[in-house]
UniProtKB/TrEMBL annotation:
Organism: Thermonema lapsum
GO molecular function, one term: pyridoxal phosphate binding
Key words of the record: Pyridoxal phosphate
Matching SUPFAM superfamilies: PLP-binding barrel
N6-(pyridoxal phosphate)lysine: residues carrying this PTM: 23
Reported function: Pyridoxal 5'-phosphate (PLP)-binding protein, which is involved in PLP homeostasis.
Cofactor(s) this protein cannot do without: pyridoxal 5'-phosphate
Keyword Ligase annotated: no
Pfam family, one: Ala_racemase_N
Name of the featured protein: Pyridoxal phosphate homeostasis protein
Domain Alanine racemase N-terminal: 2-217
Family note: Belongs to the pyridoxal phosphate-binding protein YggS/PROSC family.
Domain of life: Bacteria
Length: 220
């Protein structure tokens, strides 16, 4: 596993952060990636992240990358490092409230729906533009938006994937003008095992890689 991680890190270069997506893998497998130097791990479910947070070293930075229900925010608010999947104002309000209760500032990304598939979560570009241009941000002092996240269509069409990432990067660049105290366009979370080289070429700052590190997932 160390060889694979080292190889991916070399491909990413110094400016792109590797998030090792450990969903479905048990703590002992995650520890192999930890021993190989990984400190950023991504999980898509709160109920799976909690026991791993309890069991594993406390210097791990936990990234919530999957759809987050409002009623689950309270469980991760004490420790989560970055929430990649924020896709509503209601969720922002809840994260702000729970962060305040924990005397923290929680870092978030807005998830944008960039794929053709219907099933994926995320804001449309129009919705994200409206949110970023709105005046809600002063009322959310316990959170920071650091950038955007997107998942490309699951397809073999490399050009389509590239277009989707490129459009997201353009939107990201254009919305630097919306920056304020707690809204920054610094991080662009795009790229998974199958498409991270394209994502990096198109300006990703964080890739979320699971199966290329840990092998094929077994779902029960
Ligand atoms: C599972 C998952 C990944 C990683 O997928 P791989 O193809 O295994 O690299 C990345 N992002 C999200 C949101 C995921 O749920």
């Amino acid at each position: 596993m160390k060889n694979t991680i080292d190889k991916i890190k070399r491909e990413l270069g110094e400016h792109v952060r590797l998030i090792a997506v450990s969903k479905t893998y048990p703590p002992e497998v995650i520890m192999q990636a930890y021993e190989a130097g990984c400190r950023d791990f991504g999980e898509n479910k709160v109920q799976e992240m909690l026991p791993k947070y309890e069991a594993l070293p406390k210097d791990i930075r936990w990234h919530l990358i999957g759809h987050l229900q409002r009623n689950k925010v309270k469980y991760i608010a004490p420790f989560v490092h970055l929430i990649h999947s924020v896709d509503s104002e209601a969720l922002l309000q809840e994260i702000n409230k729970r962060a305040a209760q924990n005397q923290r500032v929680i870092d978030c990304l807005l998830q944008i729906h960039i794929a053709q598939e219907e099933s994926k979560y995320g804001l449309s570009y129009e919705e994200a533009h409206a949110l970023l241009s709105s005046s809600i941000w002063e009322g959310l002092p316990h959170l920071r938006v650091l950038g955007l996240m997107g998942m490309a269509t699951f397809t073999d069409d490399q050009e389509q994937i590239r277009r989707e990432f490129r459009t997201l990067k353009q939107f990201f660049d254009e919305h630097k003008s919306c920056e304020r105290e707690n809204v920054k366009m610094q991080e662009l979370s795009m790229g998974m095992s199958g498409d991270y080289p394209i994502a990096v070429e198109e300006g990703s700052t964080m890739v979320r890689i699971g199966s290329a590190i840990f092998g094929k997932r077994q779902y029960n």
